[in-house]
Amino acid sequence: MSTIRFTDLALHLPATVPFVGPEANMRATGRPFRARLGANESGFGPSPKAISAMQSAASEAWMYGDSECHDLRMALATHHQIAPENILVGEGIDGILGNLVRLMVAPGDAVVTSDGAYPTFNYHVAGFGGALHKVPYRDDHEDPAALLVRAEEVGAKLLYFCNPDNPMGSWHSARIVQRMIDAVPEGTLLVLDEAYIDAAPEGTAPALNTENAQVIRLRTFSKLYGLAGLRIGYAIGAAPLIAMFDRIRNHFGVGRIAQAGALAALHDQTWLARVQAELTAARKMLAEIAADNGLHALPSATNFVTMDCGRDGDFARKLVQALMARDVFVRMPFVAPHDRCIRVSAGPPADMAVFAEVLPQALRDI
Amino acid sequence: MSTIRFTDLALHLPATVPFVGPEANMRATGRPFRARLGANESGFGPSPKAISAMQSAASEAWMYGDSECHDLRMALATHHQIAPENILVGEGIDGILGNLVRLMVAPGDAVVTSDGAYPTFNYHVAGFGGALHKVPYRDDHEDPAALLVRAEEVGAKLLYFCNPDNPMGSWHSARIVQRMIDAVPEGTLLVLDEAYIDAAPEGTAPALNTENAQVIRLRTFSKLYGLAGLRIGYAIGAAPLIAMFDRIRNHFGVGRIAQAGALAALHDQTWLARVQAELTAARKMLAEIAADNGLHALPSATNFVTMDCGRDGDFARKLVQALMARDVFVRMPFVAPHDRCIRVSAGPPADMAVFAEVLPQALRDI
């Protein structure tokens, strides 16, 4: 490496990753998971129609995907009753966040988020040299008022807000979020990550308003649509903002099978409704399992349930390790005081039964 | 857009894209292509085993892909007889190039390429504010000696070299490329794009040497493996260089179906050999069709044939348009003097027959 020259920025980045992948965990033990409940994937699976569409598209995989994601964008436009010019399809929310940060954040630029919120966003901000300012949660909720104040104070270019929230599962009503949107400071773009919106009660998402140039909203096929392995999500925003992505995105970056799968999944709203019903039942099961074991399930508007262990971070970390040692994959929030909790993805009854079986064993282990 | 703030760099980027996608071309005419021969995709298709692997993986698409691409990296390591630490799997060569430029090029940094070489590389360099220096081709070949001289002169951080070359289809022998590797100036990384290497004769790729920190080699599943729609490629380089990508890449960016398809494709070398044989026949057919119509096919070590029309760029552009008007998708080199040519992907006999039928009609049209 002596003679090649990285940027100063790259040289000063840490060699860490936001998440250890579940496959890496399995390789560490040499055993498969009995239940895969740590990455908020949808164990209910994607629509059978999406599976069928992906299988049909497999033999067409010799062709690049449509660089404009035209059919999917048109279908999303119809679905949301907005114009296709207001929609960007990208390589999952992770990919879109990376490009958004790249478009807006130069070294030293201020960005505001909540302390303990999505680490991959922070990873992108650090990766472009941005200065992250973190606002504490308030009662396990992101704190819109405090976030707005901080954004104004530091002159934030981006203000990240996830609703419903990961990792706590909490949420704010559309009314509160709309008030936040209306109060975004001059010069700030609100990044409203709605990855889990399909799991939230009616009245959580404010109406879409694509005239507002100060909000970008992020949606995904990775969560309730059950297509995390495809890498496809989308952003909704004002047309001039959406158009900016064309200057830097990988135009052929969204694959052909991914586009076909997402399109079929979007068209099968019946399946989505079924997953939502199964999810509601699974969250109830998880809350009961938690209570049976002396833990307290926090209310959730997501596809996971965050469980307060009533002790400190060390205890919760040991519990996660004990569950993993028994081949149940879960994760936990990274920072105090949230790290008193573990985070368990909702899944089909068989997975919930495994969790019910193993949780008391893991608690006894520690 | 009044109140949100893009970086100066983003604001000064052009709103252009390296390539108009074939689907966009079809939407413009409202008709499907009779032959899709413009994007150097493999009309021979992927291995049936890869199709089968992708179809099986479709029902597992609810899970994120392995963030370490472990199985594929191990298989590639075995295939190339190198260590997995020397292999980076990424979202196609396009995605890897973007991350490589991001790691190394700050605004104003010098980068050298050939005038008329891969525009997506130039797009990434411009996207990070690099200063591109272009060296002319010499007799339709990239010019290693001149590239080296220019890299030294301007203090290039990156020197891009594609072998075999796109868009001319020409190539240099392993001996010449090795001499180039040995002469890379201090402070420069040679980016050796070998997307088409599987289409080249024996003796085109120099031996891999992962001790050399001044070369990164790029390979893909998009071309002869027939998996352009999956978005998966890889880089081979010194371990410390490969490790740097972990600081900025989207760790879950390579999808689950993509990894499964690529792994199965790699394991089916019999299919690859069959495609190589079909390709050789198709290139021969294209050369004959060219000759029958007064064009001259340049020698090709790629999966396309570049045909000299013997006239100027305007003539070739008209020919491309005439072919497109008759629903035959081809492209052509962007810059003079290469733009005297059209570029036609090799494909199965039925596609070659369509080209043979339509080329004389298109020539009569103009």
Explain how this protein is built.
The first copy, chain A, is an alpha/beta fold and about 375 residues long. The first copy, chain A, folds into two domains: about 10-45 and about 270-365, Aspartate Aminotransferase, domain 1; about 50-270, Type I PLP-dependent aspartate aminotransferase-like (Major domain) (Aspartate Aminotransferase, domain 2, 3-Layer(aba) Sandwich), CATH 3.40.640. Chain A has helices at about 10, 20-30, 50-60, 70-80, 90-105, 120-125, 145-155, 175-180, 240-245, 255-265, 270-290, 315-325, 350-365; strands at about 35, 85-90, 110-115, 130-135, 160, 190-195, 215-220, 235, 295, 305-310, 330, 340-345. The first copy, chain A, has a seven-stranded mixed β-sheet, with helices on both faces. In chain A, strands 9-10-12 form a three-stranded antiparallel β-sheet. In chain A, strands 1-11 form a two-stranded parallel sheet. In chain A, helix 8 (about 175-180) links the parallel strand 5 (about 160) and strand 6 (about 190-195). In chain A, helix 12 (about 315-325) packs across helix 13. Chain A is globular. The N and C termini of chain A lie far apart (about 45 Å). The model of chain A has no long low-confidence stretch (mean pLDDT about 95). Chains A and B meet through helix 1, helix 2, helix 3, helix 5 and helix 9 of A and helix 1, helix 2, helix 3, helix 5 and helix 9 of B.
